[in-house]
Amino acid sequence: MQENTLIASDFRFSINLPEDAIASWHQELEVMYILQGTGVLQLDDNQFTYEVRQDDIIVLNSYQLHALNMLGSGKALSLFISPAFLAAFCPEIESILIECKSFLYSKDEQDRFNVVRSEFASVFQAYYKNESRLPILMRSRVGVLLNSLVHTFLEQSKQKDPAKSSSKERLRKATDFLHRHYRENITLSGLASTIYLSSSYLSHLFQKQLGLTFTAYLTNVRLSQAVALLPSERTITDIASEVGFPSTNALIDAFKRRFGVTPGQYRIVNEHDATDPKDNDMISAEFSTDFTSLMQHLHHNDHSIVQPQVNEGYDLHVDTNRKIRTLSHNWRTLINAGYAKDLLNGAVQAQIRKLQNEIGFRYMRCKGLLDDDMMLFVRKMSGSADYNFVYVDEVLDFMLSVELKPYVEFSYMPSVLAREAVFPFKRPSILSMPEHLDEWLALVTSLVRHFIDRYGIESVREWRLAPFVSPEFSGYGVFTMEEYWVLYRETSLAIRAIDPQLHIVGPGSNIDATDFISEFLVSCSKGNCMPDSLALRAYHSILPGQEDTGLQLMAEDEAFPLAVSGDEQFLKHSLHKVKKLLRQRGFACLPVILDEWSNNIWQRDLCNDTSYKSAFLFKNILENYDHFEAMGYWSLSDHMEEIIPSSDLFHGGFGLFTRGGLPKSCYRALQLLRYAGSGLIAEGDGYFITSSKGEIQIFLYNYCHYDTLYRYRHTTHLTQSERYNVFNIRNTRQYHIRLDGLTSGVYTERRYSVGPAGGSAFDEWLNMGAPKDMCPEEWSYLEGRSMPLFQMRSLQVTANFVVNAVVQPHEVQVIRLTR
């Protein structure tokens, strides 16, 4: 059973899965809803057995013995309510029973159960929308649920039997001890002695109350723990020891009796289903609808997901004459342009020209320069290598023509060099080690020498060269970390041998992979191949087990099981850990760059098209302003994708532009960020204030993070047109900013805004009726309507001038005061 403590002393939710079938009881009141599938519910000393189905709702009273066996892919969701809360809400509830079993009644008799379903859904929504930050909201919603249960399903005629409660209390002490100490060598006699019972009486209690022997119950507890550990990298032997089995064979035998397969077979099957990149697309963005059946009941009580009309006030005093630090605007250092071959596309080139004219970046990174579609490497009939630089030159010539310096990643592996051909994406990109390292090094050396011959040594020294792909690709199983390290080191040394002043970056690992980063830096120091910049990547993604909170339940059809971190400052906190590591290792002066970053790895996240993305960029760029040497957002255009293209205009791609070149709200956000001045004078939660000669620039944002369900790829209300229902609930922010020290006089105030109310191509497209096809006139209209909202006025400013602003959820604003 996968649990998440909600408000530790009052409530908790848990997911019931097929492997959780074990007889148990607890002191809390449990309200259970069947999310999907069917199951078998056993109640009261196994006297009653029922079949339960999707949409059934059941109440299990305190110390009511039960076992739920969900079948196949079945799932159930349970809310546990503490005795303390129950006593405060209804003191007499300890001596009464609630009889709520929807499966005993026909469809025509479900109205009263629908009320409970609706209240249960309301409590769950309060949890996953993060209303639990304010416990009073949760308590009020649980109180409404209990009120419905007590008034509708209170069974006055059934009182709790004190004698039965006494024997169950003894058994509860025994089972509680087993759940806490299952790792230890526990015997029936030892447990009986601990809780002051005889061995024979305790054995009788297990058999009568649970229908299991003491040994069988303890084995089931240990097996449930073993199942939870199998997705980790622990060996079967380590798992057996950790969960209390006396030997590896004992775990294997017990596991096979219960699940029909060995632990190793179970792990292989589940890893294959979830993460085998050879048979699945790593970047697939499939989502689960496990909770949809429950959340549709919100409508019964009109619990819609509506942003509350509440203002959060922020009163700021800013000394405009105090400069915290000078700004370099490093976020404009690097932009990702997908794959090299895409840069030969005229439509993509037009988008890049627009980007440079309106924002202006310094470097452009592309992958796949060595892919077969670039026709760089061919082998002659004689077996010798033949290099063709035509396409490579066209790509680099174009970059330089729009004043972009190349960030060259030597990837992927040409097929004629590959040891084995693994295609991680729906592109001709091969992930592999070279069959012969010397041929790989000859290719890289020839390519670098060609760069120098064509563009000049001084020019190439300003470029950035990445020796290979990210080390995380070792997860595909086509190379080991040791092989990766050898290739990186030898490639780096080969580049250095041509010219020691060439700028090398690496390794492109995940920003939170601190253990690998530490090992990498130590190895580079010993191997005399330290990079000039430490290149990292951040997709705000985590393995589900990395969080202490959250449902810990990934969608079953997910090909690459990464959830979005619940840490809204993931990037800031991760960078802090990396910087601390660099100081500890003696590399404090090593520049840190993000060569790729975005909000997640899902290329079909429909929220990518919404105003959420503009607030995401504002928040993360402003919170980390100039703390990285470069921040290479992924990526420029929806045209540059690694999966099968979509015909939909707004299909959830990463791009700043749609496939047709329409600027999204995230592009408009970057346009506004270019107004940042040369000096920072104030920063904090939701604001960033800069100055330049004669002008103050105020940046405001109201960021809303994904709710808990969506972070784990569960959709409840998301559709092609309704895309704002998968976020935590946030209030409107009202800012009162007093600017002290301004020179009195007449100023021009310019206000820009991007959000659902304006500046978002997606939202304007919805306002047009979400047309599938648009004529040129309609396209031009939509592009014009996607410009940021703009207001300008002249005003008289005094020395202590106050700026007021109201910022809606998902909105970003820029206010410029120019003298």
Structure overview:
With 819 residues, this protein is an alpha+beta fold. α2 (111-128) packs antiparallel against α3 (135-153), α4 (162-181) packs across α6 and α14 (437-455) packs parallel to α16 (481-498). It is globular and about 90 Å long. Mean pLDDT is 88; it is low at 1-8, 272-285 and 300-307.
Approximate shape: globular
Q: What is the number of helical segments per DSSP (H or I, 4+ residues)? A: 23
Integer-rounded radius of gyration: 30 Å
The proportion of strand residues reads 15-25%
Helix content: 25-40%
The unreliable regions are 1-8, 272-285, 300-307
Distance between the termini: 63 Å
Mean pLDDT metric: 88
Instruction: Summarize the main sheet.
Output: 7 strands, antiparallel
Structural class: alpha+beta
Strand tally is 32
Largest sheet strand order: 12-25-26-27-32-29-30
